[in-house]
Amino acid sequence: MLPMDTMNPAAQLSSNVTRLSHLDLPGAGQVCVEGRFAYVGHIPNKQNLGTSILDVSDPRNPKLLSQIFLDDPESHSHKARVIGDLMIVNSERNMTAIGRKAEQLPPLRARLTAALGRAPTDAELAAKLGIQVSDIAMVEAAAKQGYHNGGFKLYDVADRAKPKFIAHQKTGGIGVHRFDMDADYAYISTEMEGYVGNILVIYDLRNPAQPEEVSRWWMPGQHLAGGEQPAWVGKRHRLHHALRYGDELWAGCWHAGIRVIDVSDIRKPTTVASYNYHPPFPEPSHTFMPVPFPIEGKRIGVAIDEEDHAHDAEEMARRKGRPHGCLWTFDMTDMANVQPLAMFEVSELDSPWSRAAPGRFGAHQFAEFMTDTLLYCAWFAGGLRIVDVADPMAPQEVGHFIPEPAPGKAAPQSNDVDLDDRGLVYLVDRYAGFDVLEFKRP
Hints:
mainly beta; 5-stranded antiparallel beta sheet; 42% strand; disordered N terminus
């Protein structure tokens, strides 16, 4: 069992939210709670820890049951979902300084060659990549080697203390990012050969040992092998992930905004709604979902941006003064004419760590289901923000909790949040930390 942290009450900032317990788990990309168990997917780390499974029956004393470590140092599994006794985790290339630069190197070389009229020098490449000239050889080697382990892994977790590996479904490119699943299908956001950026690939899970591809969905311009040409630069337009609600998938599509996809025929996904607010708003669309009931006779959708992070000093300088990632509400009553209704932002004055470099401040993610009009949002250096959208034209914050920074870090980086059927809130930090929280409406 991991030790309980001794908190400094003066460092905690909260309203209507009480911390029930805290574990010093390594940094996490996602927390998924099913029944009385929490499944945590970890950000890349030195221990190659992929997934932790915890018993949260007693929310004041969560217990670590098991952990899955990766045997591939080039990959991470920072997302996890469970339906019944089946767990899926992603397999994605580590975006380390070298891994990320290896992906950026070929297109950068092509751009500089065209601009300079000659092959760029190592010094010119290093300056643009924000690395040392001595690192170019490692980046070159990583780019040449490529990556071949992208995909998702399936586990039998009937015994949560002893997860059993079932299969590794390979995909393409740098692999799988976030995804959704139900008892029959997985809705996977992944790169695939012949496409630019992540697309949707739907797999039949009814035989977990042999997932079967059912269909694909992408935005026009992504299918390079099919002769399509993107009207954007790089991978700005790509699927972040799609969530299934009834016969629809609601998708955040990064700098392409939001989409609703009809999957009443699972083999022929069809786009039925789209809206893009980029530009002028600079932060990419992360998650999109419907409010599960009408509000004043209208169908309402909610989306949250991810405050993207700068990869070098030049990009960091360009970001000064621009709006932070935020929460959106939309009128989705007429799918052919989506209308934005409101934005909700957290003021930099509402967190003492809002400008602590190099962390991010703005929005990232919310719990991906609703039982009432409340949204539980992870807001990087702003912590947990609980927002009521009962009036979609004027979302109001009704509670918050800002954890202290992880040891040695300048700011908290609240990365993901989920709820259980008791209404308890689970919050994880990118750097370190797992909190069980209780909200009491004023």
